[in-house]
Design goal:
By secondary structure, the protein is of the alpha/beta class. The chain is built from seven helices and six strands. Strand 2, helix 3 and strand 3 form a beta-alpha-beta unit.
Amino acid sequence: SIKLVESLAERCNEYNVEFWIGMKPGDFRYCMHRADREDYIRNAKIFLRHGADGIYIAMDDTHPGCQVRPKDAIYQAELIKEVYEETGKLKAICGEEYHGKEFCHHDYWEPILKVLPKDVMITTTGPRIWNRLLNANDMPEHGWPVLLWDNFFASDSWDPARAPAYPLTGRSPNLVEKVECIVTNLDHNYPWQFIAMHTFMDYCTDPYNYSNEYNQGVSRSYNEILAHMAETVGVPEDREHNAKLRLMEMYWEKVRHQN
């Protein structure tokens, strides 16, 4: 809703953070008609008027099995061109191909790259959709700025044994030399993601002094994570619904000062 957009924009302004709106156009059928593209641009302008700073066009996972279909690109290229020209606020795109060091589907990317301005970022998740380790050499070099969409904490990870409550690990500081922007894909459960979110922000703030050793000795079981944290910092006095969140706040405060 517009009220939510305005609320998020207000919070972002408070902390001097850019606020982008991600918009999915759907498959090529929703881009091939001028009327559909006009609806998309009209909505983008509404978001911008109510506080958004930029537009992110997300064309990923349009088809079953995340197929890449070259015929989509012709119409997606039209949408990209029109959004850029009519709003002046297109920040980044995510294509139907979004992982790997190099483009494999050149027939898909050719019409898009013909119209994509050089100041618009292209999204990658790295060599794979989920990566245990990432460094600068894993990032593509295609002549456009790179937006890294980091799925380390995503609940749909290909490593189901890994608990999303974990601190950020396995990210080389030299990533910042090759990417323009890093976005993390968090799970929907905020209390479990507290440490994930805050350690991710610690990394982004000062990657060369960020420690990957926050979680030494912590098991991948949720219960054992909680037990480890309680043993480290004690049990919170508040035993109500926010006790887990308070425990994670206490643990994060302790370990971040130790590192």
